[in-house]
Amino acid sequence: RPRLIILVRHGQSEANVDISIHRTIPDHKIKLTQLGVEQAIKAGSRLNELLKPEDTVQFYVSPYLRTRQTFECMSKALDKGRWRDYEEPRLREQDWGNFQGPPEEMARIKMERASYGHFFYRIPNGESGADVYDRISTFQETLHRAFASPNFPSVLVIVTHGLLSRLFVMRWFHWSVEEFESLENLRCCEFVIMEKNEETNKYKLKTKFR
Fold it and tell me: Which positions are catalytic residues (predicted)?
């Protein structure tokens, strides 16, 4: 098992600045802003500071453009020989359907979702938080099998999205739906750090969600 598991939300994207972009550009093609690029570069430096000289790093990256750009910026801070990467579709953003509708329709959906609950509410033609939880569960099963390899790197970094990061931690630590609903998503390029206790071989959440 790696000594650290680190979840990172992507840097600021064009949709974080102008949500209407979802009406014309597919979600998976939305890119980082210049600020997002700068955030990702700083995240790479922060990651480098967390590493010990002997550490190696395994990146798992959502296939969306903004997460891949974030990874590319982060990885430049590390020596090439100490990391490897893998694109993982199960780490993609919650599916909101295809192109999003008019502002008034999206406002209605978001109000309804807030009232119903983010975990169980299924976005029309998209996913519920529970659907994302299910694919995160299969990804974590894959991770546990990978950890059995003696060559698995000592640090795991998952570059993904806000809701997915929260659901990953919920699944890992067996949080209730109520605990999940009480917390906020990560900010852009914010880290969540899970550290292994060498005596118990279990992980402690070092970062608190807001």
Answer: 10, 93
